[in-house]
Design a protein that fits this description.
By secondary structure, the protein is an alpha+beta fold.
Length: about 260
C-alpha cells in the first residue's frame, strides 16, 4: 500500500528588518559636502598642462646667456602665454567677485572671445609691438611645475580637506559630522526652510559643474542659519532633501 503524501512544510515567514537598519538605509540618508573656492581652479592647471604639451611639441630650445646649463624649451608664439594668463586672471576675478546678470556675463565672454580670436589669427605679437615688445613667454618647466602644484593642491583640497566634515540628512534630523575631533551638531528638520542660490553663471554653472549655495534655516526656540557653500549637483540634492524633510521619522514599535 502506498503511503499518503506528507503535508507540505510551511515556508518560514520573512523576518522583519530591524527598525534601526531601516533608519540607516542609504536611500534614506544624504551626505552633503561643502567645498572651498579651490573647486573652481581646475581650468588653471588644465590649461597649463595643455600649454606645456604644446610647448614640448612645437617649442624651440633657447639658451639663456650667462647660464651654463641645458637650453630651455620655449614656444615661439606668445599666444600660449596670453591664453594661460587670461585663464589665470579670469579665475582670480570670478572666485573673488560675484559675476551676476547677463550684462556682466557678456562682458567676460566677449573679452575671452577677443583673446582667442586674436590668438587664432596670430595678432598678439603685433599688439605687443605697440607696448615695446613686452611679450608673454613661459618655458616648458614653468607651465609644467606650476600646473602640477596647482593640480596637487586642487586634488588634496577637493578629495581630502573638504571631506573632513560633512552634513548628513536623515528623516527628521540634520547632523554635522566631523572625521576628526569630538562632538557633533544635530538639528530637528521639522519646520526647516531651505534656499538655493545658483545665479552666478560662471562660478556655479561653468566652473562648478552645476554647484550652488544652500541656506538652511532651522526652527525652534533657538533658530540658526546654516550656509552650505559650493555644493556639487545642488539641484538633485535639494530634491532629495525635500523628500527627507517631509518624511516622518519612524519611532520604536511595540513588540
Amino acid at each position: 500500500m502506498s503511503q499518503p503524501p506528507s503535508p507540505p512544510v510551511p515556508e518560514e515567514a520573512p523576518r522583519p528588518e530591524p527598525v534601526g537598519l531601516r533608519q540607516h538605509d542609504v536611500s534614506r540618508q544624504l551626505r552633503i559636502y561643502t567645498h572651498s573656492p579651490m573647486l573652481f581652479w581646475w581650468p588653471v592647471w588644465l590649461v597649463g598642462y595643455v600649454m606645456a604639451f604644446l610647448t614640448y611639441w612645437h617649442g624651440q630650445p633657447q639658451q639663456i646667456e650667462g647660464v651654463a646649463r641645458m637650453p630651455e624649451w620655449v614656444h615661439p608664439s606668445s599666444n600660449l602665454g596670453v591664453i594661460f594668463f587670461l585663464t589665470l586672471f579670469l579665475i582670480i576675478l570670478i572666485t573673488n567677485f560675484s559675476v551676476r546678470g547677463l550684462a556682466s556675463g557678456i562682458v567676460v565672454l566677449g573679452g575671452a572671445l577677443i583673446t582667442v580670436v586674436l590668438a587664432y589669427v596670430g595678432w598678439w605679437d603685433a599688439v605687443f609691438i605697440w607696448f615695446g615688445h613686452l611679450t608673454i613667454h613661459l618655458t616648458l618647466g614653468a607651465y609644467f611645475w606650476f600646473s602640477t602644484l596647482m593640480c596637487l593642491t586642487w586634488c588634496v583640497t577637493i578629495f581630502g580637506l573638504d571631506r573632513l566634515s560633512y552634513w548628513e540628512f536623515t528623516p527628521g534630523q540634520l547632523t554635522l559630522k566631523r572625521l576628526f575631533g569630538s562632538g557633533s551638531d544635530s538639528y530637528n528638520t521639522q519646520g526647516m526652510g531651505m534656499e538655493k542660490h545658483r545665479d552666478d553663471i560662471f562660478r556655479h554653472w561653468l566652473l562648478g559643474c552645476g554647484s550652488g549655495d544652500l541656506r538652511i534655516r532651522t526652527s525652534g526656540a533657538t533658530r540658526e542659519q546654516i550656509d552650505l557653500s559650493n555644493v556639487l549637483f545642488i539641484g538633485a540634492k535639494v530634491k532629495a532633501l525635500q523628500r527627507l524633510i517631509a518624511e516622518v521619522p519612524e519611532g520604536p514599535r511595540d513588540a
